[in-house]
Design a protein that fits this description.
Number of strands: 10
Largest sheet: 8 strands, mixed
Radius of gyration: 18 Å
CATH architecture: 3-Layer(aba) Sandwich
Strand order of the largest sheet: 1-2-4-3-7-8-9-10
Distance between the termini: 28 Å
CATH superfamily: Alpha/Beta hydrolase fold, catalytic domain
CATH class: Alpha Beta
Shape: globular
Number of domains: 1
Helix content: 25-40%
Length: about 270
């Protein structure tokens, strides 16, 4: 657990490290809390003094998978019998994903300086939120949003809804006077190849099968031209030290030590 001097619970979020626009927003899994990942994020934080880790808390809500009982959840999950109908969770209709996106996004200071991250259901929200940020960035002609997406034991939810967002932005871009239709047709607006994505998953995961990580990797490559890196481990639905260390290295590459964006108590750049 991080010491009280380096972390605090504020606005339903656990914060580790000095206040900075450079942020890793890490969402916990179904039924968990920010405290469940505090030690791991504190471990990463020691090598990233210029980054603040923000661990938001999912709201209590009825979850169908839990017999309708309330538990911390970013969105509802259907019963096992319903889940079994899908070849992967990418095809699943997700009730509440937009609310989760809004709750997750409220902790972003600068999207270009943010890694969207999480475990299990938190990883799903991170993937969806990060991809929405990337799609909007691409549609506006930018290349640097977000800093990265990190998904541990997760999957990309609501893939059809995400494609609808992309197609809507493509259509809007094609009809604006500043962007000729011919130019839009010649260039795939959904090309988000500049976004670094790391997927980590246990090969023996019985809760979110490894196939979901593979399907997510394939979907990102085929639909958005993102060459997501997929690291597999000999474990179930959990984390291991080898994975934690691999993520530490990946995060270090995302946030060079000379990149400082500290904020004062009012949120202004120092």
């Amino acid at each position: 657990m991080a010491s009280s001097s380096s972390s605090a619970v504020s606005a339903n979020a656990l914060r580790i490290g000095r206040n900075s626009a450079n942020r890793v927003i890490f969402g916990h899994g179904l039924g968990d809390s920010p405290r469940g990942w505090a030690d791991v994020c504190a471990y990463w934080s020691r090598e990233l003094p210029n980054v603040q880790f923000v661990l938001p808390a999912a709201p209590m809500r009825p979850v169908t998978l839990n017999g309708g009982a309330e538990m911390p959840a970013w969105y509802d999950l259907p019963a096992h019998s319903e889940l079994a109908k899908y070849s992967s969770r990418l095809e699943m209709n997700v009730n509440g994903i937009e609310d989760a996106l809004a709750m997750y996004s409220e902790h972003v200071v600068d999207p270009e300086s943010t890694v969207f991250a999480g475990f299990s259901q938190g990883a799903a929200v991170a993937l969806y939120t990060g991809m929405c940020a990337a799609i909007v960035s691409k549609a506006k002609g930018k290349k640097s949003v977000p800093r990265g997406i990190l998904a541990l034991s997760g999957y990309l939810p609501a893939a059809k809804a995400l494609m609808a967002v992309a197609e809507s932005l493509q259509k809007d871009r094609a009809t604006t006077p500043e962007v000729p239709l011919a130019a839009t047709v010649a260039q795939k607006v959904c090309n988000c190849s500049h976004v670094p994505v790391l997927l980590c998953h246990g090969r023996q995961d019985e809760m979110v099968s490894y196939w979901n990580a593979e399907k997510t990797q394939i979907f990102l490559r085929e639909e958005f031209e993102i060459n997501a890196e997929l690291l597999s481990y000999d474990m179930g639905h959990e984390a291991c030290q080898k994975e934690v260390d691999a993520v530490a290295k990946w995060l270090h590459d995302r946030f060079p030590k000379h990149d400082e964006k500290f904020l004062d108590e009012h949120g202004a750049r120092m």
